[in-house]
Amino acid sequence: MSKARSAILAGTVLVAGLGLGACSEKRWCEQDATDTKVANKYCEDGTPGYEWEPDSDKKKKKKKKKSSH
């Protein structure tokens, strides 16, 4: 493998690792049916009906359209 390919591969692995690490930092456990935050132990134990929710799931605000009166 050439030095350029090795450098590209190393860079790709580094970026992927940083991306995965950032995703797992801010999350919480929610009950699916009610979207209520619960203790992390439910998700850690793999209890059915509970899942991890990442901070990136925030709803985006919709821009209001300006009327052309």
Shape by Cα distribution: flat
**Radius of gyration from the alpha-carbon trace, in angstroms:** 20 Å
Largest pleated sheet:
3 strands, antiparallel
> Looking across the biggest beta sheet, what order are the strands in?
2-1-3
Structural class: alpha+beta
What is the chain-wise order of helices and strands?
HEEHE
Strand segment tally: 3
Query: In percent terms, what proportion of residues is strand?
Result: 15-25%
Please, what is the average pLDDT?
74
Low-confidence stretches: 13-24
Portion of residues within helices:
25-40%
Our measurement of the CA-to-CA distance between the termini, rounded to an integer number of angstroms, reads: 64 Å
Q: How many H/I helical runs?
A: 2
Describe this structure in words.
With 69 residues, the chain is an alpha+beta fold. 36% of the residues lie in helices and 19% in strands. The chain contains two helices and three strands; from the N terminus they run αββαβ. It has helices at 3-23, 41-44, and strands at 27-31, 36-38, 50-54. The chain has a three-stranded antiparallel sheet with strand order 2-1-3. β1 (27-31) and β2 (36-38) form a beta hairpin. The chain starts with a helix and ends in a 15-residue tail after the last strand. Mean pLDDT is 74; it is low at 13-24.
